[in-house]
Here is the input.
Amino acid sequence: MPSERPLIDRLKDRQDIMVATTQMLSDINSGSYNTHGIKKVNHALVDIFSPLCDKHIQIPTAPTSIVEDDGTLTQFHSEPMEIFSIRPDAKVQVLCTGHSDTVFPKTSDFQTSWIEGNVLRGPGVADMKGGLIVLYHALEAIHHSDFRDDIGFTIALSPDEEIGSPASAKILSELAKQSDFGLTYEPALSDGTLAGARKGSGNFSIVIKGLSTHAGRDFFSGRNAITAAARVSILLESLSHEANGVSVNIGKISGGGAVNVVPDTAVCRFNVRTNTIEQQTMISTEIQRCIHEVMHQTQCQLSLHGGFNRPPKNINKQQQDMFDLLKICGKQLDLDINFKPTGGCCEGNNLSAAGLVNIDTLGVRGGKIHSDEEFACIDSFVERAQLSALLIAKLSQHKKING
Ligand SMILES: [Zn+2]
Here is the structure.
């Protein structure tokens, strides 16, 4: 096996350039529905990654349906996926995934980045623009090392992770089936802990259609869509079960207008988390039961949209072996690497469901993600790039981790 020391040394003085590039990306708004901003970030990422790559293509994403607050359905066309390949004929193939979108829309007050001591604050600095920069530098170090010819990469950047990967999930799954290992660059916790098992998740909307009448003249022949939404919400929430790890969160109810009108339209939006696929099947049946019960009670029409988009990520032997390999890499850098289960989910769930063993929190250490206090720890940029480079070096020497 070639020496790993040059990898660590090559990266050790990269902090300033890594932070500066992350700031440049953070300062471009790329909320999931801001296609113009995502295009701009993707342009910058193509400039960054291309010098390492043999080939770059865009894969168009299929349009996805969005339920608007007035119950109508519209189509959303996200940007294409950016796919790069490096040495596709090498004996070990790694799929590296990340996303260029953030949760911060164009209208958010949180638009630019700044440095406060050891912390870089800004939209997407941790989730996951900083992570993409960690990935680039790790690959760059490998590119200039003796490990280079043993390992090839597909880098897949998606535009829609923060809304559940509706358009990119299928493409990710296909790429996962052609790879030996997956690396995803979501942030680790600020203390360095990575995500282990992950719950599965689904996003749903129920569109409720009632009958609008005048609240004074004809109240009793109306059918109130908002109270039907309330009834179905209570039933759905009651499917939650703390001990089993199942939760149903009613996130938003919209509808109605003037108080002297019986409202004829409402939309109830909710998110479901589960520990197992069996629970997803069970909850799907239960959601239908709740809908039928409320239709029967209220004479309103309820139609369900959405579904489970991320299957649970469970830890099997192969997955545990990959975690253990990262722990060994951590030791070489004097880092105590730990994994903790989480209710959150990400592309790592999708890779896992496609049978690809993966680690999905290889990005910077950081925290307060999805809030205007999001931060990345500045001293983690080099550390995590070195950690990834070491992991890749070890993977280059394995065909399969347990094979
Ligand atoms: Zn993310």
About this structure: The CA atoms of residues 190 and 365 lie 5 Å apart. The two ends are 18 Å apart (CA to CA).
